[in-house]
Design brief:
With 278 residues, this protein is α/β, with parallel strands linked by helices. The protein is built from 10 helices and 7 strands. 47% of the residues lie in helices and 13% in strands. The strands form 2 sheets. A 5-stranded mixed sheet has the order 5-4-3-6-7. A two-stranded antiparallel ribbon has the order 1-2.
Length: 278
């Protein structure tokens, strides 16, 4: 595919395109333009590849009867739920060579709600040079490629989530790089702690700028990655307290105090302080 080709994958940004390197199995590169088109949809009708109303478009290329494709669809279903109600547009693309019954079975098993577009004659696949299944693409509001993610068994949704959040201006390129190349740990528990710590650090930045809801979201991600990470629970408590949500703050503080005796006194004081402000 040349730079003048009119097809690509898409997540919408409102700024410069973040440059990423692509695997050799795709004929697209960051900055390549595309033209929005309508494709036939599973079940009838047509659906646009891109949404001009979204700040982010996510494209999932998959193959029925393939375990990795099913895992990818399930991971993207989780991402769909996380970004529900936000300006993110998801679609899945499948070759027209597959029977509709096979496609429907994969969609039902994965639990995804995204529209499934049928690539008639594999024209889109060919122009993009998509040879590896599954794969997820993201592009900006200028319809330029931002990222192309081949399947990975570990942290797939997290990697795609990072690109989406970058497109939504929630994190910067440095944070995306950390997600793509997390600090290596000698033991699984250490890895959990490293991931949770990254979320906490990002949440603390939001907290300092009084973006308390975003800070709470980062804290929750930290707790999800490591339920025994006391700093994530403390940040969650602080974020809830800053919003006046004292019962939620108290629960987070109590959990943190039980995990780490060193913070027990401090969080007890914060807990009581929130209650007094009420």
């Amino acid at each position: 595919m040349t730079r003048t080709a009119t097809w690509t994958l898409g997540v919408l940004l409102s700024g410069a395109v973040w440059s990423v390197s692509l695997p050799a199995r795709a004929d697209v590169a960051p900055g390549d333009p595309i033209q929005n088109v309508e494709l036939p949809m599973l079940g009838g009708g047509k659906h646009a590849l891109l949404s001009s109303q979204a700040q982010a478009n996510v494209f999932v290329f998959f193959r029925p009867r393939q375990d990795h494709s099913l895992e990818a669809l399930k991971a993207m279903a989780a991402c769909e739920k996380e970004f529900s109600g936000r300006p993110v547009h998801f679609v899945a693309v499948v070759s027209s060579s597959w029977p509709a019954s096979d496609v429907e079975a994969a969609v039902v098993e994965s639990g995804t709600l995204m529209p499934v577009l049928i690539d008639q004659g594999d024209v889109l696949y060919g122009r993009l040079g998509v040879r590896l299944h599954p794969a997820v693409g993201v592009a900006n509001e200028k319809f330029q490629l931002v990222a192309y993610e081949p399947f990975r068994k570990l942290n797939y949704c997290e990697r795609v989530r990072g690109k989406i959040r970058y497109a939504l201006h929630e994190i910067g390129s440095a944070e995306v790089a950390q997600i793509d190349d997390p600090a290596r740990a000698a033991f699984p528990n250490e890895m959990k702690g490293a991931v949770a710590t990254r979320y906490v650090r990002m949440g603390e930045l939001y907290f300092k700028t009084r973006q308390y809801e975003k800070a709470a979201a980062e804290a929750r991600h930290g707790v999800e990655s490591d339920p025994r990470h006391a700093p994530a629970l403390v940040l969650l408590g602080d974020s809830m307290a800053a919003q006046g949500k004292c019962p939620e703050a108290a629960a987070a503080y109590d959990a943190a105090g039980k995990l780490d005796s060193k913070v027990a006194v401090a969080v007890r004081s914060k807990r009581d302080g929130c209650a007094l402000r009420k």
